[in-house]
Amino acid sequence: MRENISFINGVNLKSKSSWEELYSYFYAALCNYSSKITKDKHASEDIVQNMFIKLWDSRIVFNDLSGLTAYLYKAVYSRSLNFLRDNKKSLPVDQEAVKSESSLEERYIEMALEEEIISQFYKALEEMSPQQREIILMTLRGDKVDDISRKLNISPNSVKTQKKRAYSFLRGKLGSSFMIVKLLLFA
């Protein structure tokens, strides 16, 4: 993300390039975050999309990136809970956690941190070669080496080599967060 001050000013002024960057940086992470609450991928995409539309139409002004980030996650959290309430779905939180406000807040913070790490992962994917990126995305979808090999019309050994290089690149970019990404996305 470019310099925070110019980015925040662009978001506040409804600059198209700043909003494209905002959307690109936060959309996938917010959808994943909402999906963990709602257990409904399509509803989560709608929730995030509608939140961005409401934000665009609002006159809210942000002072810094942390305030913007906090707003986005809180808005998606509230909208996700509203979705559950409106669709009479039970909250995916055990009753003991509901009784303890601090426990719920800790869970919220933990989920937000996970989403930030996942967002960094998707940004790193953008820096990879197209073939490595496609192989990693196919792996995330559950495709096996032989399936990827057939779909991309390359040898299984090429798939393994490109996957190994991609993982090495991700380890370098994400550092210790790479293990968290593997646990969250590849498990």
Main β-sheet description: none
User: What is the residue-averaged pLDDT?
Assistant: 82
Compute the number of strand runs. 0
- As residue ranges, the low-confidence spans are none
Task: Please provide a written account of the structure.
- The protein is mainly alpha-helical.
- It has two domains: 1-120, no CATH class; 127-187, Arc Repressor Mutant, subunit A (Orthogonal Bundle).
- It contains ten helices and no strands.
- Helix 2 packs antiparallel against helix 3 (41-57), helix 2 packs across helix 4 and helix 7 packs across helix 9 (156-174).
Brief summary:
This protein has helices at 4-12, 16-38, 41-57, 65-86, 95-99, 101-126, 130-140, 145-152, 156-174, 177-185. 80% of the residues lie in helices and 0% in strands. Helix 2 (16-38) packs across helix 4 (65-86).
Q: How are the SSEs ordered, and which strands pair?
A:
Blueprint: H1 4-12, H2 16-38, H3 41-57, H4 65-86, H5 95-99, H6 101-126, H7 130-140, H8 145-152, H9 156-174, H10 177-185
Key structural traits:
single chain; 187 residues; mainly alpha; 10 helices
